[in-house]
Amino acid sequence: MDRDEEMGHGDRSLLFIGDEDDDLGADRDGGSPPTSSDEGSFSERSDDDDRRGRCRGRGDGDRDAPDDGQKGTWPQSYRQSIDMLSAVPSPTVSTLMAASPSLTKFGSSFLKAGSSFLRKGEGSALPLTRPLLPPSLSQLSQSSLHQPPVKQFADNIGLRPRPQAAHEAELPERPSRACLKSDYIELPPPASKCSNGQSIINGFNVLCGVGILTTAYGIKEGGWLSLLLLPLLGGSSCYTGLLLKRCIDSSPNIETYPDIGQVAFGIFGRIFVSVVLYLELYASCVEFITLLGDSLSSVFPSAHLTFTGINLNAHNLFAITMALAILPSVWLRNLSLLSYLSAGGVIATVTVIVCLFWVGIGEGIGFHPSGAAVNLTHLPVAFGLYGYCYSGHSVFPNIYSSMKDRSQFPFVLLFCFTVVTIVYAGVAVTGFLMFGESTMSQFTLNLPQQYIPSKIAIWMTIVNPYTKYALTMTPVALSIEEALPQRMQSYLVGMSVRTCLVLSTVAVALLFPYFALVMALLGSVFTMLVALILPCACYLSIKKGAVPLWEIILCIIIIMNGVVCAFIGSYTSINRMISSR
């Protein structure tokens, strides 16, 4: 039975739930109602999370996160910023009120009267009004003095506390790793616990991205037999996703991919993993700008601009114009509003797939078998394109941590990878049968403009990167902003950082306007690292001594294949880009 139902909290629709068991610490611990400021309530909830994790344990390993000196290391904003990127929220009352503090005040009296789980009395605080801003260090230290001991929480829920290890006993209570130490950015509440269905939707949201546009081009580059790489990469990526789950289960202090890197290889592992993940997100934003320029230039091919001797063709003009249009969404101060944009990407992807089949079947283009069985010369490019389609491992730990029933994560992962692999293969075969050797880097560029479904597909392709750009760039921006000195952490500086990031992605996109080749490079380098090499390496490091021989051999084979494919794929992609200039 769910613990909320045991405590009389059957209605979860208005609760904000934190990283793992973040079900409003004061309500569930049996502690006294918060009587201090809102900031104190936030820190109490964060500290309760850690005690809760230590009391429960996960029983899969004895190796916990490193010592206190490394607990608050960069990046601390990773968890919540990636939650915004991956989650597809439902427009419930709680999420709407989180995005609008004024609405919270307006409806607080109604919620107090209608919600059976709210605390009675003058001193009680409405859970929906807990602050989105993390407390200062001084407030955290003051609130930690009033925390109930671990034994009190364990007694309240009927659990016997796990004996603390020697290094755990020395660790002070700490704020959640999801907290960004900032006084100008309104972080959304931690992601609520998800059902299996919601987790599957989140998985589709991560895996079904713009990579699907290049699958048909992958057949053109590598031949028909290159399709065998899709189930091979999908199976390997699904297995390494399960390895990340086992790494998280080895310690109650592991929540995100950087945490896994820290436990496996220390502080340098955390920094290396974080840098790789942020570079992958940044490169994805570069691809978004290129995609916007390509798509709009196909709709308005004659557009151009000449200004002070500078001649901008249609691609460059629309790349710059769309970057300027995206910029206000990157400046948003209330980041809760960005999470609603993520649903647009799922809808746009499904619409584009439907339009492709519609044009092929309903508009008379038909399907014409052609192409070589295999093209070994360009096969590494196809490998990188297919690999990019499975670049979702940076988000899998967040999806796992937010699940109600974590035991169903293997099923969720297997279901998502199976479905997206079938969809990728179906779109690749359909697109190449329709356009053959004339297939372009995005199959939407081949769709005849006179057909209505073609127009819909093009504009949905424009909507997809437009809705996801700010969500993808926000984790990168927050990581830079939290690394700045405290005196520089202001809204003006934050806007400047984000503006520079957007302008830099435009510059890179204009310098390398090769959508498919850049995507193949990203798939060869970052996907091989994030999806294949790092999960196996971290798993062998964390679970060393407890891994069977066959699994050690399998992980080593995956690592070696990933390294070889990364070198060959990156060399081929870079060489093709140089020869194309």
What structural keywords apply?
581 residues, mainly alpha, two-stranded antiparallel ribbon, globular
How many individual helices? Answer: 22
Task: Work out the helicity level.
Answer: 55-70%
Tell me the β content. Answer: under 5%
For the biggest sheet, the summary is: 2 strands, antiparallel
Provide the low-confidence segments as ranges: 1-64, 66-71, 90-183
N-to-C SSE series? HHHHHHHHHHHHHEEHHHHHHHHH
User: Can you list the strand order of the major beta sheet?
Assistant: 1-2
Rg (CA only): 25 Å
Query: Span between N and C termini?
Result: 63 Å
Classification by helices and strands? mainly alpha
Give the overall shape, derived from the CA principal axes: globular
Number of strands: 2
Look at the structure and give the mean pLDDT. Answer: 75
InterPro entries: AA_transpt_TM (IPR013057)
Family: Belongs to the amino acid/polyamine transporter 2 family. Amino acid/auxin permease (AAAP) (TC 2.A.18.5) subfamily.
GO cellular component, one term: vacuolar membrane
Transmembrane segments: 225-244, 265-292, 312-331, 338-361, 381-400, 412-436, 456-478, 490-512, 552-574
